[in-house]
# Entry
Amino acid sequence: MKYLKYLLIAGVLLTITSSYTTRSSRLSEGIYPGNVMPGLVLNGDSGKTFSLEHLRGVKVLVNFWAAYDAESHIKNVQFWNALQQKDYPMQMLSVSFDKSKGVYEKTLKLDGIDAGYHFYDVKGKDSEVYKTYKLDNGFKNYLLDENGVILAMDLNPHELENYFN
# Structure
């Protein structure tokens, strides 16, 4: 009985001390599902900077692409069309890494895409965005929740429906 009392006291003390040493469960920043997407700051045509932080509170599809990469270009158009047709409660943020701004602008015009949340990264493959998101392994897209947490990556346009039903 004496030992049981000591074991009980030791258990209570262990529980109390372990609760003080437990790490917080904050999400870490990263480029994979479950991570908070790293800060993304872009320069718009008007010379103003735009931060992904401005879209907190709404789901966001971030799409990296270039006209010279057929697969990413097609997905960019398909995502744009899907968002226009289905009226998903989200915003698309598109970043192009084309070699010239003229190609980027002409591509948007030919594709019938509004340039509102579409950006051109003038540094292309040398940009910090390109390096941070490891786009040398291929262009990617990310679906973010309202808090900037990555829900999914490398989606196809028809997979968007799974996140809104």
In short: The longest strand covers residues 59-65. The chain has a mean pLDDT of 87. Helices lie at 2-21, 70-86, 101-111, 128-132.
